[in-house]
Every structure is written in structure tokens, then in C-alpha cells.
Amino acid sequence: MTKSILISGAGVAGAALAYWLRRHGFTPTVVERAPALRTGGYKVDIRGAALQVIERMGLMDAVRARSTDMRVVRHYDARGRQVATMDAALFGGRQGDDVEIMRGDLNELLYDLTRDEVEYVFGDSVTGIADDGTVTFERSAPRRFDLVVGADGAHSTVRAIAFGEESAYARHLGHHVAICSVPDLLGLDREEAVHAAPGRTANVYRTKGDAGAKALFMWRSPALSYDHRDLPRQKELLAEAMAGMGWQVPALLAAARDADDLYFDALTQIHMDRWSKGRAVLVGDAAHCASPASGQGTSLALVGAYVLAGELASGGGVEGYERVMRPFAEANQALAPSNLKGMVIASRLALWFQLRMIRLLPHLPGRDRIVERVAGAIHRAATAVDLKDYPA
Questions:
Q1: CATH (domain of 307)
Q2: d(CA 41, CA 104)
Q3: Could you write out the three-class secondary structure of 295-346?
Q4: pLDDT tens-digit map of 48-72
Q5: What is d(CA 139, CA 245) in angstroms, rounded to the nearest whole number?
Q6: pTM
Q7: Can you give the residue range of the structural domain that contains 332?
Q8: pLDDT digit string, tens, across residues 126-163
Q9: DSSP letters along 215-270, please?
């Protein structure tokens, strides 16, 4: 029976998987390239089936205590005039018990839940996986494992080793995104401020308890060629993409130049015919990245970790894991293209129409039906899996 399992990546998928594997009697080890737990990041949603996973982990109260508590989204024109407001939950497509939390806060909760029972190795990375399960590392001595799990994101090292180049599985969605910490220039209080122009959107938000703010930039763009570790070049590309925008965008770009936590990437999905090969299996974004445009990456990671550990423990193995997860992953990946149309507006006419609809929404007789159209598709995708109760 598979007992010793290496997990590459200490993010949401990796830490959640470590918890469930330990619960089922496995011996997981987590290796993470970063020198310490990644505590930064942006706000993420936990919805549908993922809420069941959080509940079964005993983390629901802690997650809700760290909710972002966002209240309102305000839209501004290029001259800085407020032109529309929107409820933050509706803006994020949240319904019912859905909860929004900072990714770093969720990472900390998962790590604290596992750190005393799971071996974490920081500052190292997998370099090879042999047929007999021997794994080589950048810094550590080789070790043998029964299974190696790639929980290391859309640019997965494990996937590259076991399956080949990322280009064979990545589908560019025609947009790029950049997110970083910035000073709170607007005096926000659980608010999000947005300025959109054709093909480009900039926003900044401050969540409950945050001393600063986060800026997010999204724009239409073909695939770009750059080094993922070249932070200065990424800042140049961001400045070029946002050049000429009004409102607070120049000030936000100036702050972004000084940020040391910039996340810059293409909006990309990962599509694979299979998620396991030999001693390797993939989970979370490494297997089926839906892109931030789906709003479901974190939920997919939580559910995937739960299902993979449960299927390994119950005898379903990686085949059972793929059988349960694939329809769920595909349903959530399908959200991204339509969501993007509302996140980055293609034309001035479409932008005018969107802002007018936001202003009129509270007064429309069919408001509930309109809200259902906005949030209903996300809710249906978030609940498109029946979670088994895997005995521990």
C-alpha cells in the first residue's frame, strides 16, 4: 500500500492534502521552493463543496473569523468621479455561506493545522523522479517515496518532470494579471475601488484588519515572453500595459514599482487528459488550473486534496480521484471565459452599458433574476460534485 508521499508545494492544495493524508494514516512530506510559508497573496473565495471540506477539517469558525468582510465596490471614471456602486458579495459572485479570505490567511490556517504532524522542507525543490520512487532535490539528499504529488501550481515542476513541457497543456485566455501590495492611498475601509477602460481594468482594495491595500491590474494581451523570476521586467510590462490610464492608476503603478510581492502572470488554464503518470499525480492548479478569472481555484484545490487523499485511502486510487474530480474541474474551468467578459470590458459602449446596469440594478423589478444570472452559474459549478464521506 502507498504510505510515504511527497507533496511538492506548501500552498492551499499541498497543505490541505497533507492534512487529509495524515488523517488517513499516510506519511506525507511537503517540500516548498520558498524559504518560508508564503503568507502574501490576494483575496480568494471558498464556495460550495469546498465549504464542506473546510467544515470537515474543523476550520470553519477560524476561516469566517478571518473573512475579508468586504462591504462595497465603487466604480470611478478617468477623472476620479464615482460613477456606480455595487455590493461586494454580488461583485464577487458570492451567495449564501460563501466566504472570502486572504490566500495567505488560509495558508497559515492550513499550515498551523498540520505543522506538528507533517514534515515540511522549505527552500528546496524536486529535480527528478525515478521509476522506483527515488526523488532528487536541488539541495537535499535523494529520498524514496511511494508517490509524488505535484501541488506546485500552474507552472508545476512535478508536471514538467513527469509529463513534459507546460506549453503542451496551457491555454492562454488572452489576458494578463498583476497583483501587489500598495499603500492605502484612498483611505479605504473594507472597500474596493475600480476604474475600467476598454481592454484594461485596475482596482485597489483594503480588507478587514489590513494595514495596507492590494492593487490588481488586468488587461487583454497576447502571450508575452519573459522570465517568471525577472521582477523588474514584469514591472516594466505592467507599466506599459497600463500606460495612459486615468484615475489613481499612475499612483498605483508608482507604488507597484516599489512592491516586493508582485504576482504577474498570464491568465492561463491547464487542460490534461490525465493527471497521473508513473509515481506522479497532480492536484490543484498543477492538474487543472482554472485561472483567477474562474474565482474557483482555491475551492478546486481544497476539494481535490480531500478527494485524492480519500480515494487513496479507500482503494479508489488515482483513477478514482480523476473520476470524481474531472467533471468538477471542467465545470469550473468553463466559468473563466464568460467571467472575463465582465472583468475586462472590450469596448466603451459595453463599459457604458455595464456601469448603467450597476446603477439601475437596485431599482429593477427583476433584480433577483439578474443576480441569479450573475452568481448562479458560479454556485452551480461550485456544487457540481458529491463529496463522499471517507472514513479516517
A1: 3.50.50.60
A2: 6
A3: CCHHHHHHHHHHHHHHHHHHCCHHHHHHHHHHHHHHHHHCHHHHHHHHHCCC
A4: 999 999 999 999 999 999 999 999 9
A5: 45
A6: 0.95
A7: 4-68+100-170+268-338
A8: 999 999 999 999 999 999 999 999 999 999 999 999 99
A9: EEEEEE-------TT-HHHHHHHHHHHHTT--TTHHHHHHHHHH-S--EEEEEEEE
